[in-house]
Design goal:
The chain is an all-alpha fold. It has 15 helices and 4 strands.
Length: 349
């Protein structure tokens, strides 16, 4: 039995190891950075407050990245998610201020996200415009609309105290903000788990089940992998592409709900500015192929955490914030180079 086990070990080829590392690259990258953080600044990094802050600060990016995963698996990319978040967040606040109804504000936000996603999906699927061009255009359009609507540069949730019904307005605004500013399981010795983390993990589970255990989820991967073969097998590839962008829009809208409730405002110029690049980076680090057909929800999850841990470690070490983007860029380039190496290994197999 021992000889048989040793024979198996000897038969493991270098490309098999590379393939295993590639399929779990995001997890290994996260673990490597986590260990480095412990070695360099463990006394600060390992504090529960710091760990929870990493996850809370990256929850919105994590939610958006779930939708971005589907778009990239389909062989596309979305450059508009940051501006889209600002737009649908602004719409939700406008509806809330007009109605003082939290449900209507959230419904308007999600509806706006789905509609804008459908618009992009139709342009890509039906009019055959590259997703890069479509979302580059919609990014400019969405941001311009928000800049026009928010000439003052921002819009607070709720209204200042005073006037008839002011107490009720303030209470409703407080409930709205509690969507993102309440910690569960809080005790005297534990600060609790912020709700945005709960939302993010729950959506990860739902998206994993959708992509792995439904026919539609499998059709998304089939379409991204080989559109012609998908068509021949009876998959309606145009509808699948449109659905991918619509789901991405819905994820952006859910992220906008969390964002507006957390900070109580939308900035016309600043909200979501870096979200598109961060979401793409997380998905690529997670092992998704920009050529389509490959991607994992678990990989995206650890891709987001990798970026979060890296940014946190740099901040703890006192590295200039202006250099954080350079570090993110290096990680993304490294992930793409590793991906190409693995693709070459597969072709040679």
């Amino acid at each position: 039995m021992l000889d048989h086990a040793l024979t198996k070990v000897r038969n493991i080829r270098g490309k098999d190891i590379m393939r295993f590392l590639g399929n779990n690259a995001a997890l290994f990258a996260f673990l490597l950075l986590f260990i480095m953080a412990i070695i360099l600044r463990g006394e600060i990094f390992l504090q529960p407050v710091n760990i929870l802050n990493i996850m809370r600060h990256n929850a919105i990016i994590g939610i958006i990245a779930l939708g971005m995963t589907l778009v990239i698996v389909l062989g596309g990319v979305s450059l508009s998610v940051g501006a889209q978040l600002a737009l649908v967040g602004w719409i939700s606040i406008e509806v809330f201020n007009a109605t003082r109804n939290i449900f209507l504000a959230m419904l308007a936000c999600v509806a706006a996200g789905i509609i804008t996603g459908l618009l992009e999906g139709v342009l890509v699927a039906k009019f055959k415009v590259p997703s890069f061009i479509v979302t580059l255009g919609t990014m400019t359009i969405f941001r311009s609309i928000v800049l026009y609507g928010l000439t003052g540069g921002g819009l607070m949730v709720g209204i200042p105290p005073g006037g008839v019904g002011a107490d009720r307005d303030v209470e409703v605004a407080r409930i709205y903000q509690n969507i993102s500013n309440v910690n569960l399981f809080q005790t005297d010795d534990f600060i609790g788990i912020p709700l945005p983390i709960i939302y993010w993990i729950a959506l990860c589970v739902l998206m994993y089940l959708f992509t792995s255990h439904t026919a539609t989820g499998r059709h998304i991967f089939a379409t991204g992998s080989n559109e012609k073969a998908a068509k021949l097998s009876g998959i309606k590839v145009d509808k699948i592409r449109i659905l991918g962008f619509a789901i991405c829009g819905a994820m952006v809208a859910l992220g906008a709900v969390v964002e507006t409730a957390r900070v109580g405002a939308i900035s016309s110029a600043a909200t979501g500015v870096e979200h598109n690049l961060d979401a793409i980076a997380a998905v690529v680090i997670g092992g998704a192929s920009m050529a389509g057909g490959k991607g994992r929800i678990s990989g995206t999850f650890f891709g987001v955490l990798t970026l979060g841990v890296m940014t946190n470690l740099l901040a703890i070490m006192g590295v200039d914030p202006f250099l954080h983007g350079a570090a993110r860029g290096l990680i993304v380039i490294g992930a793409v180079l590793l991906q190409r190496r693995l693709d070459g290994t597969k072709e040679a197999t």
